Amino acid sequence: MATMKLVVVLMMTTVIAVWARDPELTTDFAVPVGMNASMITGDFFTFTGLRDFSAAPNTFGSKKVTHVEFPALTGLGVGVTLLEYKPKTLNPPHTHPRGSELIYVLSGHLDVGLIDSANKLYSAHLHEGDLFVFPQGLVHFQINMSKKKSVRALSAFGSSNAGTISLPRNIFGSGIENEVLLKAFKITSAELMKLKAPFMPTM
């Protein structure tokens, strides 16, 4: 009986692990519905949408490339995002529920950090050419501390659609009842309104 229970647990663990990843391909690559495979050329495997990317002045900006923007990624378990941090800008604390992230600094210096499930902070000051990995699902952030220079970086993901949960936006802009937030953060109503203000819909 104990052996049977162990088998069931192992089977369920395997199923959950599979669901948490991109679907396994049974062909060389995924051909979009309605597309004739014999008509596919090298253009299908090429993405040019990052060529002219630039963040707006005084902001952090990013351009993601998932299977939505680049169908050739479907089922391959990879995705990328080009990031630009204007001076003194932040990519706020967030998580990626479906994939780990490996960030590569293309230019400038970038401060990064992640927090594990034991609430321990791991931080680093990255230089051009440095890599830092954010394990799947862990809260992390990046900030450009320079007052004059922008930073550019490229993040690779272990999923063709890793997803992003931005904690400030998801917590204060998702419609959670005020009473829940007041009790959770032990703040006043006035303080809560200030935190929610940036995420209020504009008329």
TrEMBL record:
A Gene Ontology molecular function term of the record: manganese ion binding
InterPro entries hit by this protein: Cupin_1, Germin, RmlC-like_jellyroll, RmlC_Cupin_sf
GO-annotated cellular components: apoplast
Keywords for the protein's UniProt record, in alphabetical order: Apoplast, Manganese, Metal-binding, Secreted, Signal
Signal peptide interval: 1-20
Entry keyword Acetylation: no
Residues involved in oxalate binding: N91, H96, E101
Top-rank taxon: Eukaryota
Subcellular location(s) per record: Secreted, Extracellular space, Apoplast
Sequence ranges assigned to domain Cupin type-1 in this UniProt record: 45-193
Keyword Metal-binding: yes
Family: Belongs to the germin family.
PANTHER family reported in the protein's UniProt record: GERMIN-LIKE PROTEIN SUBFAMILY 3 MEMBER 3
Protein name: Germin-like protein
Source lineage: Eukaryota, Viridiplantae, Streptophyta, Embryophyta, Marchantiophyta
